[in-house]
Amino acid sequence: MNTSRKAAVEEFVERMGLVAEGDGLPRIAGRIMGLMVIEGGPLSFSELAQRLDVSRASISTNTRFLERLGVIERVAQRGERRDYFQLATAPYVHLLQGPVDRMMKAHAVVAHARDQLSVTDEGTRRRLDELGVFYEELGNSFRELAKRFSRDE
């Protein structure tokens, strides 16, 4: 890899770590994802630790986290005992599923509160209705976006 490409990859990986951290995710998870977007994989556990200059424990923790999110997947290499990882099929669809689930749960919480409170105050009812519509529409938007990404894959 030439020096300018290597520097560009390193910058992208680092910035993806900061993006992830800004979203409340571990910085290392963002860096792993950034590297996987560039390289695709499969990359071994050791290669990830070496390329990102982080401990094997950190790679272990964050690859498990990204696997649970559906962003990367563990794959076997014939004749190898080591674990390898690659970018999952439709990783962005999987990333959108968490927000969809959270928005639908929030919508249900608002609907339940509205039912339980038997709201007679017009202002309270309007604010609860508005919040419920917000969560429902945001969840629906994320769901539609996920469908678009799944068709593109």
Characteristic terms for this protein:
mainly alpha; 3 strands; 153 residues; Arc Repressor Mutant, subunit A
Share in helix: over 70%
Specify the CATH class of the largest domain: Mainly Alpha
Helix/strand structural class: mainly alpha
CATH topology of the largest domain: Arc Repressor Mutant, subunit A
Strand percentage, roughly? 5-15%
Give the CA-CA distance, first to last residue. 28 Å
| Main sheet makeup | 3 strands, antiparallel
Name the shape in a single word.
Answer: elongated
Mean pLDDT across the residues is: 91
Per DSSP, the total helix count is 6
- Low-confidence segments, given as residue ranges, are none
Give Rg in angstroms.
Answer: 20 Å
Domain count, please report it.
2
Strand order of the largest sheet: 1-3-2
Which architecture of the largest domain would the CATH scheme give at its second level? Answer: Orthogonal Bundle
Order of helices and strands: HHEHHEEHH
Let me know the number of strands. 3
